[in-house]
Amino acid sequence: MPWKEKTIEKLYWSIGEVAEQLGVNTSLIRYWEKEFGTLKPKRTGKGDRLYTKKDIEQLQRIQHLVKEKGYTLQGAREQLRKSELMEEVAVLDIDALRDRLLEIRTKLVALREGNA
Description:
By secondary structure, the chain is mainly alpha-helical. It contains four helices and three strands.
């Protein structure tokens, strides 16, 4: 069997690394952090920001809405809120569907075993 080298993915990125990825200034990232209260990167003991993959994805969504779609900051905030609500609803729907399928499975097993 061929040797498969493990790749280690970073857990945290500095504000400079994130700014470079997005092609923006670090000051813009700090501004978005202030304007969009949901963006809260971890901090080191010195106060340096540490961004997770999830934080970077949120910054990319903000950048897309503001820079590419032309939303105002308020409009972008509302869009992000709507997206978050839709994701929550989707998770709830999946949970409800899973529960219903388990009920049906239980009834089918009972029917097959003649216990219905």
